[in-house]
Amino acid sequence: MAFADAEAERRGTTRSGLLAELLDEARVRAQTKAYLDRHGWDVAEDAAAWRTYQRERMAQEYAEDDW
């Protein structure tokens, strides 16, 4: 909680304001990932770039799974 309070103060907001900012940032990241998953070919330079993006995303998403 001390870190949250210090970060909120550094950003000039309250603890709940900080939480709202972080949740909004997480929402934007999730929406961006969803967009790229649906329309990646529109934003990727080529097939290799798209495959690289997908491999990195999947590795991160499933990093803690036991296979």
What keyword list fits this structure?
67 residues, mainly alpha, 3 helices, 0% strand, elongated
Helices, strands, pairings?
Blueprint: H1 2-11, H2 15-43, H3 47-61
Entry summary:
This protein is mostly helical. Helices cover 81% and strands 0% of the residues.
Shape verdict: elongated
Rg, Å, rounded: 17 Å
Helix content: over 70%
Which structural class should the secondary elements be placed in?
mainly alpha
Low-confidence stretches: none
Annotation, overall tally of beta strands? 0
Could you please describe the fold and organization of this structure?
This protein is 81% helix and 0% strand. The chain has helices spanning 2-11, 15-43, 47-61. The chain starts with a helix and ends in a 6-residue tail after the last helix.
